[in-house]
Amino acid sequence: MTLKAILYLLCLFAAGLSGASAQTLAQARKLYEAGRYAEAKPVFQRFVKQVPSNGNYNLWYGVCCLQTGDAATAVKHLEVAVRRRIPSGQLWLGQAYDKVYRFEDAIQTFEDYTADLKRRRRSTQEADSLMGIFRTHLRMFKGVEHVCVIDSFVVAKANFLDAYRLSSQAGKLVPYADYFPFSARRGTTVYENELGNKVLYSEAGAQGRQHLRSSSRLLDKWTHGAALSLPVPDSVNTAYPYLMSDGITLYYACDGPESLGGYDIFVTRYNTNTDSYLRPDNVGMPFNSPYNDYMYVVDEYANLGWFASDRHQPADSVCIYVFIPNATKQVYNYEQMEQKQLRSLAALHALRDTWTDRTQVAQAQERLHQARQNARHGTGKQPAFEFVIDDRHTYYKEEDFHSAQALSLFREYREKSEALHHQQSQLDDMRRRFAKADEAGQANLRPAIVDLEKRVRKLEADVEQGAKQARNAEIEAL
Known about the structure:
6-stranded antiparallel β-sheet; 5-stranded antiparallel β-sheet; alpha+beta; 13 helices; 17 strands; 478 residues
């Protein structure tokens, strides 16, 4: 033991007589055991600085770093804990390696960990499960896509869609709460296609999980929101949809077992023969990471792509990445590349490392600049709605109305439309529950369904009449 360590322990003993320092460590341990890592972290950091070789201090501080998003710092301290043979050190170190893309090191650490568990006749179930995840991540790492990322910027997570600058031909993205202001349900985002006759969105079901739904407009009516026929289990969240202009290719985010961590971006395609979507594919790195990655959009008209990620960001922020879409997927050569460089490319640590054609980058940055200018001057602003007045007039914002009476009637019409959509969703849910219920359950649900069907029919008539009244009032003012 070093002289410094001896002196520190003597100081701890002396302080322990008054209970001051010992109480501070005890409080940190309680916070740690309660999962309040951010609060415990500063105390453990102080103890690690005072006794850098203490294995327990390094373990506790390393876990706090890992759980608060600082995996790189966690690795250094957890390695000390493992060298000091602290129990559970390998469990946490392997997870920290995974977060910093050192997947082979994570696997090796867990191979040693499971071997030790077997020697002690302990269960390896948790370790085996994590080992499978690490192996999946390593397979993804061997196929990192070569994509040119031209820019990134950090924005508030609460209104991150404001950072997307899409051309009108690419459709529009709207927060769920803005698109369905009268809905009692929770959702993430809504995608409306460029024709304004189809929307895709996610909405929380009875269990609180987000699931993708779609609705189409037929004349002035929207169809009931229907669940997308994706081949994914109901136990996972699916959200943040974007449909390409071909009407077939769908990008969305999912937090299922095939994700690197949290939400990952997936792509699937619609099969017209079976009226369902094909098995989704994880789009891989660098788009996906051990953190949350979502809202993948390709604006074919501007030749720009966008996606959001909370990798290395505080809880209230998200980073928006802008990239040049590839016509075909190209991957880096895993066998020939230096591993540190490939990790940097997979994690998008340095965007300039992805720039192989400076002319292409400059052109893309000019397109991005133009998209921002269009948004600033209103030419790229997405319409709030689309309301047909007659063959020559279609309104996209309230300022388009000439008649105050027509505007008032239109607002009433929109409120009733949202109420109708909400009640239609409730009716769909009740019908699904009825189909799965036993005889007693069906008997309980039947009166409620009949009552709700009457209310929906009444609202449908009110909505249709409201649209006509608003339209006629405006026509008189033209």
